[in-house]
Amino acid sequence: MSEAVKKIVLGIDIGTTGTKCTFYDLGGFPVAGAYREYAMIHPREGWVEEDPSDWWRAVVDNVKSVIASGDVEARAVAAVGVSCTNSFIPVDREGRHLHNAILQLDQRAAGEVEWIEEHIGAERVYAVTGNRIARGTFSLPTLRWYLNNRPDIMERTYKFLVPSGFIICKLTGEFSINTSRMGFTLLSDIRSGTWDEALARDAAIPVEMLPRPYRAHEIVGGVTKAAAALTGLIEGTPVVAGAMDTVAAAVGAGAVEAGDAFLAMGTCGRLCHTTDRPLFDDRLMNCRHAIEGQWLNVEATNGAGVSLRWFRDLFGGVLEERARRSGRSLYEAIDDEAGKSLPGAGGLIYLPYLSGERCPIWDPDARGVFFGLHLGSSYGDMVRAIMEGVAFSIRQGMEIVLGAGSRSSNYLSLGGGIANSPVWSQVFADVLERPIVRLKVNETETLGDAILAAYGVGLIDSPREMARSAAEGGAVLSPRKEYVACYRDSFALYCRLYEDLKGDFKVLQRLKEQRGGAR
Which UniProt keywords apply (predicted)? Predict the structure, then answer.
């Protein structure tokens, strides 16, 4: 008789800058995992793409390496869940991508936004989808861009898939989309979680190109023989539909009841509130929760972790040798430098608009700014200014959410890569004037994927229970009273700076277009 094997579940998150694959036990404890970075592609200014092959390669390498290491047994893996960043990729009948993925940071579809507003109407789109029309963040303008600029791609397209759908197709051979991510296509009814065929027809998007919707915990299919050979997983292992990365993070952070709030801080930053109804405010984003009967309203900033990565790539070399000698990571060395700078960052203010901005200003022309540089500005001042600027952006959204009547707990759970930074975590507590709970498992997306997968195959009775249990016991960082007034003043200046510069951002964009550096 074979020895009984403890069941584990695999969570996969396809992120903007890398893919995480983490195996969890049924208590929500990470058993093993791996991460692979990949490069964004910038064919022109304002265009941001990735090669979907890089996602699949990362999944294969991550899963295969963990199983090969002996840290987990393939036969122990009971199910797989997948979450993802935003994109809508054209694929053929074999699931092969026909174009690079156009990412949420991409700003090319300005004309398409204008067309949708004129021919369909912003009010109608918002009434149906619960979201505004915006390029990059939502898929419909990108689909219209394909129609106008790459009709050859449209002619060959069988389905459009979000990144998790693309990976699930590679794993199972099935074409799918989860109901939380489909809300950001601007082609679905947010209330029913179904495609709005009239909206698709009026936008000239063939409905047959839209994949079948699944709820987050529903099984799409089993791992194929070919995918099993590549990854090391057992053929037939169930794969559930999963969720939008933010929704998976909500589950992983234990934000599963109305009033729960959390920060999911990775490449982009998101402040999310769980509600029992959609919160219709067009400065925010709405989506369906993975928990039936619940919703998420989301305030998102484009330039969170990606701002620090940009700074690392440009200026990290000065710390690389120091980090290597001390046996620490480069990010730990950068965090140390930020810790040497006092709150207020030596008089610097940073606007994190490296690729335009979403909530709450919705300005694709906005650009990053360091304000207040002087001869005494240090490396640490600039890093702290980045951290504070991202926190200020989140505070803008928080004030809107609370002003719109959303119930919120008195504390915020913090997950995502940024939670690895003690300095940045404290900045959030001080700027937002809320206790911050640094979750024990800060990879909230993959944990949420794993919880949904476990629920989908009947290993747990309720995703709520496992989510709450996994989120317990995190360290609490309280706001420091001596810095609250300082940050309130800096926040007011941060808000004024954008108002003063927004006209100049548009002038700058026109100048770049005239000189050939178009969007």
Answer: Kinase, Transferase
Identify residue 443 by its one-letter amino acid code: E
The tally of domains found in the chain comes to 2
Residue 92 shares a structural domain with residue 137: yes
Alpha carbons within 13 A on the beta-carbon side of 205: 30
Indicate the DSSP class of residue 33: E
Q: How far is CA 131 from CA 138, 174, 192, in A?
A: 9, 28, 15
- Are 196 and 79 in the same domain? yes
Query: Which of 13-22, 165-174, 225-234, 404-413 is least confident?
Result: 404-413
The pLDDT value recorded for residue 407 is: 64
145 and 75 both lie in a single domain: yes
The CA angle 343-348-353, to the nearest 5 degrees, is: 110
CATH of the domain at 389: 3.30.420.40
Mean pLDDT for 318-333 is 89
Q: 286 and 190 in contact (C-beta within 8 Å)?
A: yes
Q: Which tokens belong to 138? A: 């939502």
Residue 457 and residue 506 in one domain: no
Answer yes or no: is 375 within a domain: yes
- Greater confidence (514 vs 478) lies with 478
Residues 152 and 45 in one domain: yes
Q: Residue 410: is it exposed, middle or buried by C-beta count within 10 angstroms (0-12/13-18/19+)? A: exposed
Q: Which two tokens stand for residue 511?
A: 């100048």
Structure tokens at 447: 């944990």
Cα(374)–Cα(378) distance, rounded to whole angstroms?
9
For 334-420, list the strands marked E by DSSP: 349-351, 369-371, 412-415
Kindly state whether residues 450 and 369 are assigned to the same domain. no
Distance CA 484, CA 41 (A): 40
Q: What's the residue count for the chain? A: 519
Residue 1: predicted pLDDT: 37
Domain holding 371, by residue range, is 305-397+480-514
Task: Kindly state whether residue 224 falls inside one of the protein's structural domains.
Answer: yes
Q: Report which of 505, 403, 145, 104 is spatially closest to residue 270, judged by C-alpha positions.
A: 104
The chain-wide mean pLDDT, for the chain, equals: 94
